[in-house]
Amino acid sequence: MGIFLFILTVLVIVVIALVAVGAVTARAASQPRTSIYDRAEAVEYVADLLPDEITGQITFDDLALLLQWHLDYLTDRGVARPQGQDEPASGPLIASEDDAFAYVIGRATDAGLEIDDVWVIKVVEANEAYLRAIGAVGKKMELPPLRTKDEN
Asked: pLDDT tens-digit profile of 118-133?
């Protein structure tokens, strides 16, 4: 009888543990994945993607500034959030690539950083590739076709 109670107790404990682990796993699976932007990793990643003509002329510090300004733009648009803010965004968030280029070029000009506009575009594009690589950016959304007056 003592062995039966022992086995029953062990089984109850195992079942409770499996249910608890299953509940936590299900809750974690339903949450959106959090992507952490590692600045040092991003600078290396972006530098590796840039053509030699750019990496030979731009310092890592200047590259880090350009990446930060791109992140500032994404934060201003509500697409990126500072670390520690876990509340999900409501609805799809859209940031224009052309606006991002203009924003970063403007910040570089304001800071007195003499850099070719094409280089800025290459840096922003490479930073977006890094964001996709870490899972921080989703797929491009297809816009629905515009309805004509006859369809309304």
From this structure: 999 999 999 999 998 8
Residue 64, CB half-sphere, CA atoms under 13 Å: how many?
Answer: 8
Average pLDDT of span 60-64? 95
Burial of residue 31 (CB within 10 Å: 0-12, 13-18, 19+) is: exposed
Helices (H) and strands (E) in the chain, counts: 6, 0
Compute the distance between CA of residue 70 and CA of residue 100 in angstroms, rounded to an integer: 7
pTM beyond cutoff 0.70:
no
Backbone phi, then psi, for 34, in 5-degree steps? -95, 125
Distance CA 129, CA 116 (A): 20
Contact 76, 122 (CB under 8 A): no
Q: Which helix (H) or strand (E) holds 74?
A: helix 60-76
> How far apart (Å, rounded) are the C-alpha atoms in residues 51 and 125?
12
Place of tokens 């876990």: 86
- When mean pLDDT is compared across 2-16, 51-65, 87-101, 122-136, the lowest value belongs to 87-101
